[in-house]
Amino acid sequence: MKKIVIALMLCIPMMTMAQSEWEAPKSAQQKLEEARKAEAAAEKARKDAEKATKKTEGQSTIELKEDPKYLTGAVPVVDGKVTFTLDLDIPGKSAQQIYDLAYPLIDQLTIDEHQVKNGTSQVSLVNKKEHIIAARMQEWLVFSNGLLAIDRTEFNYTLIANCTDGHLNVTISRIRYNYEMERETGFSITAEQWITDKYGLNKKKNDVNRKSGKFRKKTIDRKDQIFDAIKEEFSK
User: Fold this and answer.
1) Which domain holds residue 146?
2) Which has the minimum average pLDDT: 6-20, 150-164, 166-180?
């Protein structure tokens, strides 16, 4: 019996070592699995964060399909009326001097190549004492001009120049379009009803409206052309 007990005691360390040798690989495998799980969780968290960021960016940033110069805010509305305004500081010149330079410039606009007919555009009101010039304009806005057809609209507006010492204020307002009036599908419409942000842009505000967009763009282009000509004249 004593020999048996001694033999059993000698076997215990060997059994312990065998158990340890057996569990060691299992422990390493567990650590590997835990590392893989941690890595997977980190990757999921990264992807979730990336999705959240893209969603946030998508809410604040929309891909523009048109030049920003034609998009939100490009057609200002003042007291319910579409009104484009040029404010130009002209240091060193009196109201009379500014008036004397502005009048021939505006008068020239009434006879340029954009006119519907000779004489339909004209300086309709002047107030020399207050240094105010008002012109009623009737022009063509040309959308496309092909060999067989031309797409254009009659463009009516009022241009007013208000001259003060050292400053010139010019506005373009009271805009109306008469489009293809000789056809049954033709129409007459104001800028307020047609080219404002509400009517002239799509729902996402990243592109112009399919129908009225060409009116909005050409109106802005013509406004820029007129205001640039005025700025150029007074920069000499």
Assistant:
1) 68-234
2) 6-20
- What does the buried/exposed string (b/e) look like for 65-85 if buried means 16 or more CB atoms within 10 Å of the residue's CB? ebeeebbeebbeeeeeebbbe
Task: For 172, list phi and psi in degrees, rounded to 5.
Answer: -120, 120
Do 42 and 95 lie in a common domain? no
Q: How far, in Å, CA of 59 to CA of 203, rounded?
A: 14
**Residue 147, domain CATH:** 3.30.530.80
| pLDDT for the residue 71 | 97
What is the pTM (predicted TM-score) of this model? 0.73
Distances (CA, A) of 32 to 42, 44, 46, 56: 15, 18, 21, 36
**For residues 226 and 57, what is the distance between their CA atoms, to the nearest angstrom?**
38
Residue 71 to residue 228: CA distance in whole angstroms: 20
**Domain co-membership, 112 together with 56:** no
In angstroms, the CA 162 to CA 76 distance is 19
The answer on 141 and 26 residing in a single domain is no
